[in-house]
Amino acid sequence: MKRLFALIMVVVLSGCSSMNFGVSEAKKGELEHMAGVAVTRLIAENAGLQGKLNGAPGYMVLKSSSAKVPLMGGEGGIGIVKNSATGRTVYVKAAKLDIGDDLSIRDYKLLLLFKSGEDLKKALAGTWQLSEDNGYSVYVLTEEGKAATYKIDALKLKLLAE
User: In the predicted model, is pLDDT for residue 17 greater than 70?
Assistant: First the structure.
């Protein structure tokens, strides 16, 4: 069983290499629009979020999809990381592997507020990996417009373009 798990991890993580594929200008516009709409809706639905957003060194917005079956699942997304002070935006792809007992398929938008300038710097470089040790706040916007706090166990970013 351990060998099977190790093999699955190698296959999944090899698909998350740090290659920079680039993003077209049209796709950048779509991602920025998606992020703006998601942030606006989340602010409207979460009292105090605007203040937290203003105080954060930066944030990430992902358009994500997940599919999970018992024992294994995965999530993938594409979006932006933005430096609040400079306005610099980079475009990222994210991947997550889940091991556990769950059955679900869903689409959602995720807003992550960075609490550390160092974590933001790594995310802007596409080298940041989210774990429970990082300080962050996360908000989720489902297709029905509901927002909730969401816990992520691990997430790997890949820089697509600046």
Answer: no
